[in-house]
Amino acid sequence: MERVAARYVYTLDREAPLLDGFVEYDGDGTVTAVGECADPASEPNFLDGAIVPGFVNTHCHVELSYMWKLFRKGTGMAGFIDQINELRDTKPLEEKVGDIRRWMGTMWDRGVSAMADISNCSDSFAIKKASPMYTRTFLEVFGTEPEDCGAVMEGVMRLKSEAESLGLDVSPTPHACYTMSPELVTAVSAEGLKTGFLSFHSEETPEEEDMVRFGRGAMWDNRKAAGMSVPPVTGKSSLLYFLDRLEKVHPAPFDEHILLVHEVCMDQEGIDAVKEKMKNPFIALCPCSNLFIHNALPPVWLMRSNGLKLTVGTDSLSSNDDLDIVRELYCLQENFKGIELGELLSWACLNGAEFLGTQDRFGSITTGRKPGLVHICNLGADGCLTAGSFSSRII
Asked: In Å, what is the CA distance from 51 to each residue of 3, 8, 47?
């Protein structure tokens, strides 16, 4: 039996942290006891800072790790897509796989116990299979031309079979309304919903909204100049357009777990529609990525006041300088003053585990579970994160 203690222990199955708390666990990482130290000074393994459950990264593109430090910041989504098209597949497979392995290991060492990861190919599959981290792989689909829908679906179903043959949990999923024909959004959503999960890039930028609502803007111009089909101009938000396409699969409400990624432009109309039509909606906040691409952040206060379940992701190293959950939490703390660390951690641990349907294993430090234990050090005197805070895995 092992025992570790700290000034703060965030179990996340209660509102407040345990002060001068301890956690005991057995050889396979199962939590056996949690409580307050009778005499902190006598604890042989007392850590400064906080002990928290393993993180759940709900949005990552780990296969794009080879793109680290290659992108210009602040280009907007149209400029970012131009860079993706220019830089994708510019390294040999051996280097890509090496970068995936290194960053998977880095995230694990920093305390990520589970992850919702986006894949466009099989480059990361074997590494995920070998990793101690739990992953659900979302096979992301693109295709703007309606006549290509059948071939695209055949391709993603072959990729699904390959992932399943390795024992990976996997769900086909649409990328975003602006990279897909209406027919393809519905077709791949139907396959993803069969697995119980979808992950969808939604309302990431005003350029996306201009494109779908009004048929204008930089993204619209880029697509037209490239001779590509564009989504129908609906006069409604891209989120409402997505909901319309989902209802071509089956009528609302949707019982499945649906993750809306980014939602920088979410408004009350969209929130009301989501709450009406989805029984299990989740939001993935990726603040560092949003600032990297277009220097904007999602309406966290509005989401929070409406009771939406918020989670935390890192996005990819094409749109972020790091894959660091603590850095994402610090960004949220500094930009949305007054949200306490315990609530931020509930987003990064508990809610993410619930989205993945793994809350019986991850998300909280609860007796009988194996969430992983993580140490966050360099907290401020008030217990908040600082610019120097970082995490490391205990178990």
From this structure: 12, 6, 8
pLDDT tens per residue, range 323-346: 999 999 999 999 999 999 999 999
The rounded distance, in Å, linking the Cα atoms of 137 and 60 is: 10
What gap in Å lies between CA 228 and CA 184, rounded to an integer?
A: 15
More confident residue, 351 or 78: 351
Nearest-angstrom CA–CA distance, 168 and 125: 8
Residue at token pair 């929070």: 304
Cβ neighbour number for residue 205 with a 10 Å cutoff: 25
Cα–Cα distance measured from residue 260 to residue 253, given in angstroms and rounded to the nearest whole number: 16
Residue 314 near residue 320, CB atoms below 8 Å: yes
Give the contacts of 356 (CB within 8 A, at least 6 positions apart).
56, 58, 114, 116, 134, 136, 197, 257, 362
Residue spans of the domains in the chain: they are: 55-323
CATH fold label, 55-323 = TIM Barrel (3.20.20)
Check if the beta carbon of residue 100 is closer than 8 Å to that of residue 62. yes
Q: Is the peptide bond before 172 cis (omega within 30 degrees of 0)?
A: no
> CA dist 5 to 14, 24, 185, 291, 342, Å?
17, 9, 49, 36, 17
DSSP of 274-326:
HHHHEEEEEEEE-HHHHHHHHS----HHHHHHTT-EEEE--B-TTS-S---HH
pLDDT tens digits, 190-246: 999 999 999 999 999 999 999 999 999 999 998 888 889 999 999 999 999 999 999
Quick one: pLDDT at residue 78?
A: 86
Dist CA 275 CA 327 (whole Å): 30
How far apart, in whole angstroms, are the C-alpha atoms of residue 376 and residue 47? 9
pTM of the model: 0.97
| Measured torsion, CA atoms of residues 340, 343, 348, 354, in degrees rounded to the nearest 10 | 180
